[in-house]
């Protein structure tokens, strides 16, 4: 009989190594494509969190299981190369904070009381991934659920109060791998107080939203090929910004989404005076990762033939489910974003205007992503729904 592993994650963003950044953008492109194809209703996901938590899982895998995980994550198959890439990012982002901003990343492994982790896996989990390891009795569902959700709630500053329910906990569950990222930061330049404006949910229908506005110097790009405008809004944290991709046509989001790889590979933006307006928004999204990752090539890990022999000798493990919960708030002051991912293993300056200002009026559906020097922490879309 296979024992279960549950993977959970909560995320937010910061920066580092170019090799990981390239891998992160490749993975983000594949992930977003699958989310669109599977018609994810509310789309907000943390690609970086998924890469980190599944890299922690891969560290205890072998054979086909390991190869599929590495390939789908766009990370090298070589153990040391992958560990070094991930460790560099984790060390940079474990805790970044100042008077006005905070970025924290944490990994946690909950282990069934009678399961013993291999010393080599536990050592790597602690030394490379900075994970805390704690024993818990999953058979005592109420207590286990309270312990796990309390940790997630604390790490996400109460933005994600629950990641597991009693239905997720059963007698076959042996491990839960958790990853949390929390990001809160103000804009470098605060926006004006929002006012109600119409937002086109399609080419002819509108809803009223709180629209923020500003006129300032921003990094801006226009693409005739992609038929879209792009705006980079910096946070008061070095190397971090939100990028918005706005199709020229009000119903052009679907076509723009097909070119996400080109969007993420855009050349450097140029500074322009820009008249900006875009909605204030807040929403939550729960992503069932199993069908998404399965379509991306992670198949063996979810079957009885999964090879997680590097994690424990006392249990034959496979992944039963993987869930990510995300939360984002964007307003005139800045952004709060958090994400939780779970993987379950079961048995079985002054302005100088040199040209007319550009206009970036996001009054119809658009893509947004929060990026750092290390890669993309969050990506999503706002459709007005």
Structure report:
The chain is of the alpha+beta class. It folds into two domains: 18-185 and 283-329, Antithrombin, subunit I, domain 2 (Antithrombin, Chain I, domain 2); 192-279 and 335-382, Alpha-1-antitrypsin, domain 1 (Roll), CATH 2.30.39. It contains nine helices and 17 strands. The chain has helices at residues 18-37, 47-58, 63-72, 79-93, 119-127, 141-155, 253-257, 260-264, 289-295; strands at residues 3-10, 44-45, 95-97, 102-112, 132-136, 173-186, 195-200, 206-223, 228-234, 241-247, 270-279, 281-288, 317-330, 334-347, 358-361, 366-371, 376-382. The strands form two sheets. Strands 2, 7, 8, 9, 10, 11, 15, 16 and 17 form a nine-stranded mixed β-sheet that branches. A hairpin with a 5-residue loop joins strand 7 (195-200) and strand 8. The longest helix is centred in the N-terminal third of the chain and has 20 residues, at 18-37. The termini are far apart. The model is unreliable at 10-17 (pLDDT under 50).
Brief overview:
With 385 residues, this protein is an alpha+beta fold.
How large is the radius of gyration? 21 Å
* Secondary-structure element pattern, one letter each: EHEHHHEEHEHEEEEEHHEEHEEEEE
**CATH homologous superfamily placement of the largest domain:** Antithrombin, subunit I, domain 2
**Strand elements, count:** 17
Task: Flag low-confidence runs.
Answer: 10-17
| SS class | alpha+beta
Mean pLDDT reading: 90
């Amino acid at each position: 009989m296979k024992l279960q592993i549950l993977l959970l994650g909560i995320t937010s963003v910061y920066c580092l190594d170019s090799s990981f950044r390239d891998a992160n953008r490749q993975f983000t492109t594949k992930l977003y494509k699958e989310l669109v194809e599977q018609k994810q209703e509310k789309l907000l996901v943390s690609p970086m969190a998924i890469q980190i938590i599944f890299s922690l899982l891969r560290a205890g895998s072998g054979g086909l299981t390991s190869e599929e995980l590495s390939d789908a994550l766009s990370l090298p198959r070589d153990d040391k190369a992958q560990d070094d890439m991930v460790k560099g990012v984790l060390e940079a982002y474990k805790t970044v904070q100042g008077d006005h901003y905070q970025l924290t990343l944490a990994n946690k492994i909950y282990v069934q009381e009678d399961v013993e982790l291999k010393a080599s896996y536990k050592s790597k989990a602690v030394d490379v991934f900075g994970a805390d390891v704690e024993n818990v009795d999953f058979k005592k569902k109420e207590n286990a659920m309270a312990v796990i959700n309390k940790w997630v709630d604390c790490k996400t500053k109460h933005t994600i109060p629950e990641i597991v329910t009693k239905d997720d906990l059963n007698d076959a569950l042996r491990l839960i791998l958790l990853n949390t990222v929390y990001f809160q930061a103000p804009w470098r330049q605060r926006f004006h107080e929002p006012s109600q404006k119409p937002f086109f949910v399609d080419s002819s229908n509108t809803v009223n939203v709180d629209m923020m506005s500003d006129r300032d110097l921003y990094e801006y790009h226009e693409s005739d090929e992609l038929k879209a405008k792009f705006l980079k809004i910096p946070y008061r944290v070095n190397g971090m910004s939100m990028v918005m991709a706005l199709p020229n046509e009000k119903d052009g989001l679907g076509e723009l989404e097909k070119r996400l790889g080109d969007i993420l590979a855009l050349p450097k933006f140029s500074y322009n005076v820009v008249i900006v307006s875009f909605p204030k928004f807040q929403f939550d999204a729960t992503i069932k990762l199993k069908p998404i990752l399965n379509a991306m090539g992670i198949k063996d890990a979810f079957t009885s033939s999964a090879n997680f022999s590097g994690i424990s000798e006392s249990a034959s493990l496979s992944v039963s489910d993987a869930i990510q919960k995300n939360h984002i708030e964007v307003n005139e002051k800045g952004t709060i974003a958090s994400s939780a991912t779970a993987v379950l293993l079961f048995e079985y300056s002054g302005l100088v205007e040199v040209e007319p200002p550009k206009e970036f009026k996001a009054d119809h559906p658009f893509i947004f992503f929060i990026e750092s020097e290390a890669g993309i922490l969050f990506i999503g879309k706002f459709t007005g729904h």
